[in-house]
């Protein structure tokens, strides 16, 4: 038996098989095939495997296909993906907000849901005149306003951005002036920006005057500093906006950094669906004249410094060269 084992390892079945029964040689031949050392046996083995490329014989059945996951096993994965997408959209793209008051009538009604674009501020875009924007309370404008106590479902939906957050103190108004603008209102109007009268009939609440005749802020002339905006509600006689917060730390202005984004769509209720475009009156020519002048004044000191420094630098270089040639 020790000779048979040696033959199986080496693949040589010569003298070892002499005088032995034929059936005892068969296992040795099989072992030679598995070792790959007997070329004839190997060819026979390959020929036997040709009918099936995967090594199965003609009678072998194909492997059963994988059974698909049940819907209930995939459901948690789908919910997880949806939650991640919702959080990403809320953080970087759009967020839903609810209108809590009548200060933006008739453009927005109390209870409307709006979608706010949060993407463009990430690319350095700043609010422009005429846009409706959502912003964080800059300096306790909402003092004394009632607060709601949301249940667990409302808290969860607001966390993923499908409902507005009851905890965040946000306001929504229309941008009237941006950094560098002079905004003025006297009498019953019209409201002017950089000396240009605005035609506000398309968005100011019917029956309201552009300016309010009172001594608490309805009559004003303000210069908007860089990095701030001046905002007003469309329902002028029912909006506690920049006019009535001029005694706060920002003098009624809203820091651009507090702006969440621009409201672009009225999404709910469905019968009030629509976009929130910038009114045409903010596109009139000459409205940017004073802002451009302010920009020029900002650039002017730099230009003066450059004009002063260049001659001094040239004179210094000439003095150095003259000293080196001596």
Topology:
Blueprint (H helix, E strand, L loop, with lengths): L1 H9 L11 H14 L3 H11 L21 H22 L1 E5 L14 E5 L14 E5 L15 H8 L10 E9 L3 E4 L6 E2 L2 E2 L22 E4 L4 E5 L21 E2 L3 E10 L5 E2 L13 H37 L1
Antiparallel strand pairs: 1-2, 2-11, 3-4, 3-11, 4-9, 5-6, 5-8, 6-7, 9-10, 11-12
Helix pairs in contact: 1-2, 2-3
Q: Would you write up a description of this structure?
A:
- This protein is α+β, with helices and mostly antiparallel strands and 326 residues long.
- It has six helices and twelve strands.
- Strands 1, 2, 3, 4, 9, 10, 11 and 12 form an eight-stranded antiparallel sheet that branches.
Compose a concise summary of this entry.
The protein is an alpha+beta fold and 326 residues long. It has helices spanning 2-10, 22-35, 39-49, 71-92, 152-159, 289-325, and strands spanning 94-98, 113-117, 132-136, 170-178, 182-185, 192-193, 196-197, 220-223, 228-232, 254-255, 259-268, 274-275.
Low-pLDDT stretches are: 1-53, 290-313
User: Largest beta sheet, briefly?
Assistant: 8 strands, antiparallel
- Averaging pLDDT over every residue, what do you get? 72
Q: Report the C-alpha radius of gyration, rounded.
A: 41 Å
Q: Element order, helices and strands?
A: HHHHEEEHEEEEEEEEEH
Task: Work out the strand percent.
Answer: 15-25%
Structural class by sheet pairing and helices: alpha+beta
Characteristics of this structure?
alpha+beta, 8-stranded antiparallel β-sheet, disordered N terminus, 326 residues, elongated
